[in-house]
Amino acid sequence: MRAQDRQVVRLLHESKGVCTILLAEGDMAPTMTLSEKTRDIKNVWPTEKLQLRDLEYGTTRSAHKFSFLATSLHRVLVVMFAVVIATLYIDPRRITAGVVEWYHGDKIAEGAETCPQAPLFTPSKHAKLLKNLELVYENESFKLSAYQGLSGAVQIPTEMFDDLKPPGEDPHWEIFGKLHEFIENKFPNVHTTLTKTVVNSYALVYHWQGSDESLKPLLLTAHQDVVPVEPSTVGAWKNPPFSGAFDGEWIWGRGSCDDKSGLISSLTAIEALLNANFKPRRTVVLAYGIDEERGGIVGATAIRDYLLTTYGEDAFALLVDEGGSQELGENTIIALPSVAEKGSFNLRLEVATPGGHSSVPPPHTSIGILAALITELEANPHVPALHRNDTLYEQVQCLAAHSPDFPTSLAKLARKSQRSDKALNKLTKELERIDPLFKATAGTTQAVDIIRGGVKTNALPENAYVIVNHRIAGYRALKSRLIDVLSPVAVRFNLSIDAFGEALGDLASRKVAYGKVVLSDAFGTGLEPAPITPTTESPPYELLSGIIRNVIETSNRKAYVGRKVVVAPGILRGNTDTKHYWSLTKHIFRYSHLNNADSYNGAHTINEAIRAEGYLEMIRFFTHLILNVDETKALV
Fold first, then answer.
1. 26 near 8, Cβ under 8 Å?
2. Keywords in UniProt for this one (predicted)?
């Protein structure tokens, strides 16, 4: 084997006498066949059984079998020799990740089929431009300007309240005009080059025309609004909630994570591309909502209608919005672009009973009966379950196949579950035991959030109601289940039942009933689970996955060194503005290029802050995304 050939060969894995050599793109002579590569490799590593894996396509192929000394000493020497060769010629972060994989048994070979990882995608036509921009992003003056962009946006308190009247009817909306002024001043090239359209007074849509009109555009979305800051908590913030303070490491304030970082990082990337004289071949569209934090009822809906009128149904190649992020493990970085969202339903459960003076009370008032109904609901939570065609199950398989941090015993159980229902049930129970978020992700959840009843201490309450929020997973007939759980309680208290507009049960036909139970959609906003974005043999998903991996692996952040990058499909437990965008494209990805360690305290709570280094990675991500999507032939 020639010296220049050795540098692309990595011995990462030995298990049960099987030695797996991973071949990266461009291994050895470009014209060599697999068998020729094998003959060349055998001169370095004589083995009993050899497997070659092509990293570019994620496939494992059997190779020639050679004699192998069965002693443990010989095996150790083989591995040591491989590591020495790799140390001399290969990026240290890949060596570290590789050695970790070697210790994790047969995960690599299994993962090739179960969850193939996309190759690293980096632009070729725009390679020089990207290289120059990466240098720009390392410049301290650029970093400071980028931080100031996010800080300035955070300082404008675009809080969103549930009870706001429509734009034009409530003065609170005027604060969004100040944000628009800031954006125009901060990103002058965006506003001289792109076409801006204001929708429903404050929602923003930008059109960046590409040279090839036959290509479907790329759609990038974010939202301008933030959740309100509870006045009583202001004193608990390390920095004032709308200060936008930068302390050298963190940028503080409401919206720094959710979602002004997504809004400003995408604009910053485009401004940098314009400064570099980039002209897109594929059209890029930006859409920024104004009330995502209350469901996008006037912002995202107006944007959707505008985009449908302007571009049509299924008009976009792919859509990237806020959502899934990265989990920074001990040995792995797991990126989880969400390809699904749970549905939502707010149940209004109301009890009506006769009134009267409280000095002559019945055994149970409407409030007491309502309490019994609530108790019955909470005593019968929805049971989480894994299904083989669930997004969560696909995610588990990816982690089992590729993550060195995933428990080996659980990985084996995950593989068995592909064929065994018994193993699938055992896997479900084990995940429920060790993962506190499993129930919330795998099953439908219910939370009793609002309760009202009674007007006077000496008057029996004639009416009492509760609102129960549900986040709906797939495979759940929610309304029929609610009826099944609550009907026996209604019967016990001699109440008739009106379930979603339909009279039910024996009591419905009786002339005498003590009262009535009414089940209804509290706000008329029930939402089915989102259509699942394709991931299997899907060019948009593969492209996005390869871009994510490349952005992380080419980062100069010390936190990323030595960690293997794995991309797996995710599912959001909540909902984003994308719930209104289903008709725009089949390829919706909810992904914020941010790892869990770059968020100081999460979102929707005190001390929201984003690590400045992590924010720069978001700018890099949008830059890579636009350039790769612009030149790829995989998308129409």
1. yes
2. Carboxypeptidase, Hydrolase, Protease
